[in-house]
Amino acid sequence: MKANPKGEEVNWAKQNGPSDPPEALRWHVQLNNPPMTGPLFAYKHGLTHCPLTQQVFILKLKKAAKAAGFQSVQGHGIRIGATLEYLLWGVPFEVMKVKGWWASDAFQLYLRWHNQILAPYIQAMPPETALDFTRIAMPPVR
Questions:
Q1: How far is CA 92 from CA 11, 14, 60, 83, 89, in A?
Q2: Where are the beta strands (DSSP E) in the chain?
Q3: From CA 9, how far away is CA 63, in angstroms rounded?
Q4: Which of 9, 80, 106, 126 could form a disulfide with 110 if both were Cys (CB 3.0 to 4.6 A apart)?
């Protein structure tokens, strides 16, 4: 998990629908009432609060996916899926590299696995964006 023990600044933008960050945070605070001196993402557990760890987050996400009839997810799959989503919105690779704290170009390997899924989206992109995307996601045959 990539986290800074000293904390860090978080930026977000308003979204339409249930994934709106300010609304999700408001709902979390209302539901869990995290202590002012503890972690922001703490949840009620009996009479106390527990910090939301990566392990607990993934477990809760898997339960929610199953209850909704979706396929189970893995932690890294969420990262790759989010990266793909931003790239399909046209966010440049270099921006995603910084946003995802990718120290190398390793995430490009994951994109190559998704080339058949991405082909229609790449074809619909503006030519200059599609060239960058194709260069990384669909390397030349050797």
A1: 18, 20, 31, 11, 9
A2: 42-45, 48-51
A3: 30
A4: 80
d(CA 51, CA 69): 27
Of 91, 87, 78, 75, the residue nearest 112 (C-alpha):
87
d(CA 115, CA 3): 30
Rounded to 5 degrees, φ, ψ at 139 are -65, 160
Q: Say how far apart CA 129 and CA 95 lie, in whole Å.
A: 13
Q: Are 78 and 57 in contact (CB under 8 A)?
A: no
| DSSP designation for 74 | -
Flag whether the pTM goes above 0.85: no
The residue whose two tokens read 């990718």 is: 102
- pLDDT tens for each residue of 29-81: 999 999 998 888 999 999 999 999 989 988 988 898 899 998 877 777 777 77
The alpha carbon of 81 is separated from its chain's Cα centroid by a whole number of angstroms, namely 7
Tell me how far apart the alpha carbons of residues 71 and 42 are, in angstroms, rounded to a whole number: 26
Q: How far apart are CA 99 and CA 89, in angstroms?
A: 14
